[in-house]
Amino acid sequence: MSTVRIGYAPWGETLEEVADAARRAEAAGAKVIWVPELHRSATVTAAAVAAATTTARVGTAIALAFTRSPMVTALEAMDLDELADGRFVLGLGSGVQRLNEDWHHARWGKPVAHLDETVRAIRTFVAECTTGEPIELDGAHEPMRIRGYQRPYAVRRPAIPVYLAAMGPAMTRLAGRVGDGWISHELCSPAYLEKRILPELETGLEQAGRARTELDVVVSACCSVDDDAATARRRVAATVGFYASVRTYAEFFAFHGLAAQQEQVREAFRGGRGADHLADAVDDTMVDCLTLAGDPDAVAGRLAAYEGLADSVKLSPPTHGIDAAQTRAAQDSIIALVATLTGGHA
């Protein structure tokens, strides 16, 4: 039996549909329900999911770390943990500079050090906010000086798990040093995890004197399941194209021997195609290497390739370049596969 836990990132055109998908994924056997932050607030969506579920953990994957103050993030995390009866996981990520500064008017600074201080401030506040004692934290990015404050409500847990999203080496080492878990980019092959990510996580763990068992390694996997493998691949091709259009992912694609294929996608992008409409420029080699796409047996086999490398795999349906009906069909097929793999109920 596989030791890799399966999580799921539900999709919906409404919060009601997201909650329903979360409920069905939990019944199918998903151990964690993860919610993103881009088109919705991660914390509000997590609240909807927490109310709709009873056993699965509820996590943000990810909430933006710098667009809220650490105190607000901590308050929201404690409220969510209360709502979820101790099932909440706070997944944080830095985002990119332009998103922080131009979209949110948030400070960027040095993101690794900034995120390190953010995690420290959140954990300190959660642990000490009911004592009435002053909180004094120095820092270049997130100092915290709180006096005359005492939270009058009980804290469900004095330490809420904090997972960090990371792709670059320095941020990945930080996840190993201070995170309760690490969350991958949406595209993360077993080979990339083994050769590029795990060594950096191990370095971070060693720097902090921590054991590998203290870190939950969570791979994010864009998934598409259909009895017709070609249909499954085409659903997810635009997601691959979306990321291939970004020049900063050149090393990632080159690692997989896909530099020429990425350049083909980028040529289409430079020719005027939108980033969500590059599926025709993506060949099956890219899809098979970077996603879990195909018929149920093929997807189960690709999922098994993470055995011994990842602790958890977060499955998500494709959303780029396809309509809602196709995403909905992909979601239903993933939940059915989860039930088959875990013995749950679809």
Automatic annotation (TrEMBL):
Luciferase-like domain mapped to chain residues: 13-309
Cited PANTHER family: CONSERVED HYPOTHETICAL ALANINE AND PROLINE-RICH PROTEIN (PTHR43244:SF2), PTHR43244
Pfam families: Bac_luciferase (PF00296)
One annotated GO molecular function: oxidoreductase activity, acting on paired donors, with incorporation or reduction of molecular oxygen
Protein name: Putative F420-dependent oxidoreductase
Domain of life assignment: Bacteria
